[in-house]
Amino acid sequence: MSQRLQDDFDLRSETYYPEVSLENRTAEQKRLEGDRELDVKGGGSYRKEQSFLRANLFRNTPIAKCCMCGENYPVRFLVAAHIKKRLECSLEEKKDFDNIVAPMCKFGCDELFEKGYIFVEEGTVKSRQKLPTTNRVKTYIQSITSKRCLAWNARSASYFRWQVAQISV
Question: What's the CA gap between 164 and 121, in Å, rounded?
Answer without folding.
Answer: 8
